[in-house]
Structure formats: C-alpha cells, structure tokens
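Support case: S-adenosylmethionine complex. Customer-provided input:
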Amino acid sequence: MSDLGHSKHNKSSRKELKELKKIFDNNKFYLNKSTIKQAGYGVFSNKNFKAKSRLDEYIGEIIDDEEGAKRNDKSYFFRVFHKDGSSHIIDALPHEHSNIMKFVNGVKTPQQRKRQNCEAYQRNDKIYYRALRDINVGDELLVDYGPTYWLKPEELEKFYSKM
Ligand SMILES: C[S@@+](CC[C@H](N)C(=O)[O-])C[C@H]1O[C@@H](n2cnc3c(N)ncnc32)[C@H](O)[C@@H]1O
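Agent response - structure generated as follows:
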C-alpha cells in the first residue's frame, strides 16, 4: 500500500453495506463489517483457500504521481514499480474502477499482526493478493499494508531520512 496517508473508514450503515454488497460480492469473497473495531468494512472468504494460492487482483484507477498528489483520500493507493525505476499508483477509491479487494483491511497492532493471512505481491505491472496460510470460509482477509502506511507525516520524514 502507499505511504501517502489513510483516513477514517469506520462509518457503516446496514443500507450502505447492502448496496456495496450488490456491487462487490462475488463467488470467492463477500463484504461485511470488519472484525477489527473502527476499521469499517472488511472482506470475508466464501471458499477455502490453500496457503500460497492467488486470491484476486487489486484493481483500481491507474494514475501518475501528479494526479495522486491532487487526490485527498490516498488510503486506497497502491504503488506499482516498473523495471526502469519509475512507478505508477493504483487508486481503488472510485468504485467504478475497483473490485472487492479494495476493502481488505491491514494489520496495525501486534495482536492484529498474528491474524495476517494474506499478502500483496506484484507480477508485471499488476498487484495481487495471495494466501499466506490456509484461509477458511468466513475468515476475514488481513494484509500488511507495509512499513509506512500507518505513519504520520512527521514520522514518514524520519523513516525516509534513515534510508
Ligand atoms: C484500503 S481501506 C480498507 C477498507 C475500509 N475498511 C473500508 O471500509 O472502506 C484502508 C482503510 O481502512 C481502515 N483500516 C484498515 N485496517 C485497519 C485497522 N487495522 N484498524 C483500523 N482501521 C483500519 C483505515 O481507515 C484505512 O485507511
């Protein structure tokens, strides 16, 4: 995930959830209120997946840094690196460009880290999620957004100054 910030996604209503489910639920995954307090919606499995199996692609609008800088909500950004060192951003915020993987929550606390069951990886210019261990029907998908996602702007500066 991008280090470009995160915002509050903890407001959910039954009506909104119903509408979102119509758009995003599929045969593999469904949306529901997250098992993590204050985290908003989360993604739950409709199937059993073996460890290492590919779950789905992280889909969104493809934008460059200039466009990314203009967008207020950067919490659905994912940076994709190219072989020549350049990169682009996938912004999954707009529903029309995304799929259910935009709702996968990230582990934040040591307790949550123990529950991480999937990871993101890049293949060519695409981002996919895969199972880190067996995932069973009803499990919530939890990924690690990376070392910078939860940092405040001042902590980010410190993080990069050490590199
Ligand atoms: C990519 S969105 C995930 C989907 C989001 N839960 C929703 O309902 O739209 C990332 C945002 O979800 C929330 N979130 C994800 N993991 C969380 C966690 N462990 N604790 C609290 N909030 C979390 C944060 O607001 C974060 O910026």
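The radius of gyration is 16 Å.

Case will auto-close in a few days if no follow-up is received.
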